[in-house]
Amino acid sequence: MSTLRKNHTDPLNTGRRPTIEPICSTELAAASKELLNLMCEGKSVYFTGKAGAGKTEVLSRFIHFRRSDPFMALKTLITAPTGIAASHISGSTLHSRFGLKPSPIPKHNSAQELVKRANQDINLLSRYILTDTLVIDEVSMVNKRDFEAISVAMGLLKSDFHACQKVVRYLTKKAEKRAKAQAKKEASRALESTCNVTPGHNLLSELKETATDMESWNFQLEPRTFFDKDAASKPFGGAQVVLSGDFYQLPPVERESEALVQYRQMVSLQFQGKDLEWHLSPYVFTGSEWGKLVRSGMKMVMLEKSFRHGDTDFTDFLDRLRVGEWDDDMIGLLQPRILSGDSHQEVQPIKLCAYRATAQDYNSQNLRKIQSPQVDFRSYDHVVEIEQLAPILKNLSESRNPYADSTDNIDGSTDGSLLDAHSMDFTSLPVPALLHLRIGAQVVLSKNQRIGSGLVNGTRGKVVDFYEAFDDLLQKKVKLPIVEFKLSTSATTATGHRKRPQYDTFMVGYENFSCQVTESRAIVRRQIPLRLGWGITIHRSQGMTLDSVIVDIPRSGAFAPGQAYVAFSRVKTLEGLSITRNLARESVFVSSAVKQFYSEAFAS
């Protein structure tokens, strides 16, 4: 039986440094070993590299090291900006761990708002204060404003003695409850073995006597374990920060809004020329908190060697495309990969499209080819006052009428809290108002379900059946799709010396999607969390590694820096790549801010 240490001045750090055990047979390169040692010594680092440079392998070993000791694991937060990326490292999404909400208005996720939310949620507050090692994979996809807000909020909360005290009381109560349960279990087991007592026998007095003597009951925590009066002046409150990602890939997505336009206008008045583009950039490295990390000693490491692509010609092609190069040799390499009009592939690859409309048209064409009957799923859309969003979502999650306390109903009549849904734009939500499905349709999951199992936003699957079930919320029978999902690469099944993707079948029910769109209002959509999946946007594919793809970039060219590179680097080999047309020179470009950052950060 494990017990907690009595009167330990730092019960969350035993001083033990567990050895780093290999988690796979891959031998790390010398540069990767040096990087791993820096991380295990507690240094903040940012590391990057070309596609297949082994970034995920190094990060996985560091995570294994941190999780090999329960006390270190308690103080470690493993995150990524998307569900797909989080599933690759057995982590969670950055937004869910730090309480960020979907909203195009910057101040809705300001540091002050995050502090306010944390003080209202003890679990969220505990994450901010306990974390002394924060891992963010695919940091290139994180918006600068969110990155800055999390850093400032961590500093403010770690320097708040009363907040630390609140977390200590919460942890102590949890520890005592756990120790008491363990004491009962051990005492019951001991008494049953010596006295032949049945499990149902009243052992209350014996249990109390046994548990009172247990070291676990004297477990103590103190606020000073976590409190740092200077934390507010340190990036991320002084925590170790481990960042991984390639800024040559797509920039973070920013939702257009009036508030964002006003922000850009304000910045434009302050800066001009090259400085203006730098400060308008959404990349985290252009922010003040990144600068603080660098000044506080954060190491920046470039991993050079690529392990993913065995074909040296394709590897060289990707390396050059990554930095914006384009010439006749690269055009010649792609020319044989162009699909002819009569091309037929037994296993249809996923198509990566530059524009959402192109992907939607391609999906509709493929759906019409299926002969099975079509089943339609219409969403339930609402606009609500912001103060009523939380109780409405709670009722929805419990399959209750969300407007039980008002005269409003689920079908859209309004009388107070429920506002006119037709007056708002719902296109920012990741599911359509009307979803058409058929048996055999390829689909993509639109919401994280079970990150640990690889069932996350972006997981691909196929509809295999429909099941009729009674919906408590709608008070009627509805058909729900049954989907066979191909789980992510981290969730695999061993077969001899090889691993194959794991497939699992789930019935997919309705989920709630919301977004705050104004100061006082939010939109809510209740819909099946699926999209047709024969084609997806290149933006959605970032973080995926695929066996085969069709890349569709129009003659007008890519519209975002790094878009072409992201599309081509999703596939493992040149043989798995097909293209609808060769790239135009205008499609290959990178952000000048990214070029400047890499030239300065890795000048040597």
From TrEMBL:
SUPFAM superfamilies: P-loop containing nucleoside triphosphate hydrolases
Xref: InterPro entries: DNA_helicase_pif1-like_DEAD, P-loop_NTPase, Pif1-like_2B_dom, PIF1_helicase
Keywords: ATP-binding, DNA damage, DNA recombination, DNA repair, Helicase, Hydrolase, Nucleotide-binding
Residue intervals of the DNA helicase Pif1-like DEAD-box helicase domain: 41-154
Any Gene Ontology biological process: telomere maintenance
DNA helicase Pif1-like 2B domain sequence ranges: 430-466
Sequence similarity: Belongs to the helicase family.
Name of this protein: ATP-dependent DNA helicase
Organism of this sequence: Chytriomyces confervae
